[in-house]
Amino acid sequence: MSNDIPAVSVIIPVYNAAEFLKDVLNSLLKQTLREIEIICVDDGSTDGSLVILKEFEKADARIRVIHQENQGAGAARNNGMDVARGKYLAFLDADDFFEKNMLKAAYDRAEETEAEVCVFNADLYDHTEKVYKKCTWAFRKQYFPEKEPFAATDENVRNNIFRMFNGWPWDKLYQREYVRRLGIKYQNLRTTNDMLFVFIALACASRISTVDEVLIHQRVNVRTSLSRTREKSWDCFYIALLAMQKELKDRGLYDTLERAFVNWALNFSLWQLNTMTGSAYEKTYRLLKRKGFDCLDISRHNRRYFYSNKEYDKFLKIYTTPYEKSSGYQKAK
C-alpha cells in the first residue's frame, strides 16, 4: 500500500468504555499489520473515555479521535467512515479484544481473493465468568461453498447467506471502495443499527471470502452493554428488518434472496420475542401477530419454505393465538 493510504481503517464507536479502552487500543497498536489508521469516535462519553482517547492520540499518529454529541453507535460508525482513508474498513467494538494477527490475516485473505467482504471466525469471552465460549452461529462452515470467493446470489449460497454469518460488523473486513459504491450506512437506531449495513454488504457482494481462524473475542455479559437493555428499544429489530427487506427490493435482489430473508426474519423475530420480558414482550408479540409476520412475508409461505419446523410451529402458534391466551401472558399474570 501507498504510504498515504492505510491498508485498513479501524473504526471504533466509543461510549463510556473507559474500563476496557486501554486494553482495546493497546491490542490494536500491537497488530502485526502496521499500516493502519484507528478512528475512535467518542459518542458523548461521560466516564473519562475521551481523556483516554486523547492520550493515545498524542502517543501514536495512527490514532485519530472524533468527538460527537451522543447519537448512538450507528451515527458514530458513519462519521468514522466519512473520514476513513484505508483500502479496507474494520468496525470494532470498544470492549472486545483481538489476536495480534487479526488485521493481517483478514487483509491478506481479502487481497488474495480480491474480496469485497472478508469474514473471519470469532469466539465469546464471558466477562462475568472469565471463560471463553464458542460462537457457532456466526461462522457456519456447513453452509459455505467449496470454492472462494463466492457471491451471495450464487445458486449454492443464496438460500443460506443470512445464516452463514451474523449481522454484526466486527468480524468482517469491507473493501472501502465497494462500500462507497453501494452507498450503505448504519441506521440511526438504539439497537440493531448494524444489521442493514452488514447484510446488504453481503447480499450485494460478488466476492466474499473467509478466514477460518478465531481472530476476535467478543466480550459478553458486560454490565454497560446496550444489548442488556433492549426492552427500551424493543421494536428496533422490526424497523431494521423492514429496512433490509426494502433495500433488497430496491436493489433487485429480493426475488433471489427472499427465502434467505424470510427465514432470517422469522429466526430473528422469534429470538427477539423470546429474550424480551414484561411489557416489551407483550408489545413485540402483538406487533408480530398484528402485522409483523405479514409485512415480513413470513405468513405468505407454507411449512416447506422454512428451514426449521420448530420455528414454523412457533410462528403458527403466535399467528393464531391471541396474546391473552399465550404462554407469555400466563407467565406475566
From TrEMBL:
InterPro entries: Glyco_trans_2-like, Nucleotide-diphossugar_trans. Keywords: Glycosyltransferase, Transferase. Signal peptide: none annotated. It holds the Pfam family Glycos_transf_2. Residues 9-162 form the Glycosyltransferase 2-like domain. Gene3D superfamilies: Spore Coat Polysaccharide Biosynthesis Protein SpsA, Chain A (3.90.550.10). GO terms for molecular function: glycosyltransferase activity. The lineage of its organism: Bacteria, Bacillati, Bacillota, Clostridia, Lachnospirales. SUPFAM superfamilies: Nucleotide-diphospho-sugar transferases (SSF53448). The keyword Chloroplast does not apply. This is Glycosyltransferase.
